[in-house]
Design a protein that fits this description.
Blueprint lengths: L1 H14 L4 H8 L3 H8 L7 H11 L25 E3 L5 E5 L8 E7 L15 E8 L2 E5 L2 E5 L4 E5 L4 E4 L6 E8 L4
Antiparallel strand pairs: 1-2, 2-3, 3-9, 4-7, 4-9, 5-6, 5-8
């Protein structure tokens, strides 16, 4: 799937008339990293995807699209592409292939870790189901604790982030529609 994201990034960059250096200047990402992502050599981190999203806007959801959506996809452990933060606080495994409509991710959040340094917002709807542990969601002005077996759905236009205040790893399934980093 990394190659699909890379190909889509190259196509989107070209559509917007941006060179690698221009995209680099606008995102703060190195031209080398952007080139490696485009060529499928490097997996983009969550921070990289968010930086791209801030420049590419709503069109960034097309990074996850595939030309010929599959009619059947089996997601197997160890074969899934991963998205992570640079420091590895949160890991996402992609459970679905890109189809442009929604993204399903399996998240793993280490004890004491947060999905991002600060809450952020984007145009989507998110639904989170907690597999194990207690997931803390900072959502606008609220803090919500979601226990094992519970789920929560919210409009992502509200600034939000995920956290783990416990001493155990939290695992959850996250659906985002449309896909955004």
């Amino acid at each position: 799937m990394v190659s699909e994201i890379g190909k889509n990034l190259r196509d989107l960059r070209a559509e917007q008339g941006l060179s690698l250096r221009q995209l680099s200047a606008e995102t703060g990402l190195s031209p080398t990293l952007l080139s490696q992502v485009e060529r499928g050599i490097a997996e983009p981190s969550l921070k990289t995807l968010r930086a791209l999203s801030s420049v590419l806007g709503e069109a960034s959801s097309s990074l996850f699209a595939v030309e010929n959506p599959v009619l059947l996809h089996i997601s197997r452990p160890g074969e899934r592409s991963r998205i992570s933060t640079p420091v590895g606080s949160i890991q996402y495994e992609r459970l679905t292939p890109g189809n442009g409509n929604f993204e399903v991710l399996r998240g793993t959040l280490a004890p004491g870790a947060w999905s991002s340094e600060t809450a952020w917002s984007h145009q989507a709807v998110e639904c989170v189901f907690v597999d194990s542990g207690t997931l803390v969601i900072e959502l606008a002005t609220k803090t919500i604790e979601v226990q094992t077996g519970e789920s929560v759905t919210f409009a992502s236009q509200q600034a939000h982030r995920y956290g783990n205040n416990s001493s155990e790893t939290v695992t959850f399934v996250l659906t985002v529609s449309p896909p955004t980093p």
